[in-house]
Amino acid sequence: MDAVRLAREAFFAARDLVLPPHCAGCGAGIDGGWWCDPCRRLLQPIRPPRCEACSQPFSGAITGPFVCPNCHGRAFHFETAVAAFSSRGSLRELIHLLKYAKARWASKPLAELASLALEDPRLQPAPEVLVPVPLHPLRQRERGFNQSELIARELSRLSGIPVSLPLVRIRATQTQTHFDRNQRMRNLRGAFALGQNASVSGLSILLVDDVLTTGSTLDECARVLLAAGSGRVRALTVGRG
Known about the structure:
By secondary structure, this protein is of the alpha/beta class. It folds into two domains: 1-42, no CATH class; 44-240, Rossmann fold (3-Layer(aba) Sandwich), CATH 3.40.50. Helix content is 33%, strand content 14%. Strands 1-6-5-2 form a four-stranded parallel sheet. Strands 3-4 form a two-stranded antiparallel ribbon. The longest helix is centred in the N-terminal third of the chain and has 13 residues, at 3-15. The chain is globular, with a radius of gyration of 18 Å. The protein starts with a helix and ends with a strand.
């Protein structure tokens, strides 16, 4: 994302503190909410047909539930990973603003979009707690916050489902951006653990993250939670990469 775009979005965020709200996508003035009509129409909600396991959308004519080739035969520790929207265009830029430009305000429109996916049948019955994917302390200190926790707390405010922080990241890992699925899995092995005095015994947990790509991060988190006695683990992300 170029510096001009970052500066413009930072200006929009500061301006909204004293002036009427502006669209999270383009910055145009709006009467309320987070999106102008044109930007809202450009968002791509993920609906069937899509992979039951990882929410990968499919444009063909498929009737009924199916599992995509990347998930077929693969045993995840989470039951399902629900992604609300395709991570494209203004949504992708908004996620990048939150993560890389420290635009904390962006967690609010992102959580609003994620909340729409809580009605997905794969997430019924509703989970008991929301658990954000943790950052390593060094990364969180550098960023100033954990973007997944900000989204989870806004999602909690909208849904009434409480947030819990039982997971900790105990090993700093290399960035996953250029890794394939197998490399990501190896990179993340042993990166997460249950925090001291944390208990998840019997709980129905919904992991919360910003974007789902291969599912490796969510899978490793789910593995730790299940090993600690969680009743069931599902996952929800705002975007699907």
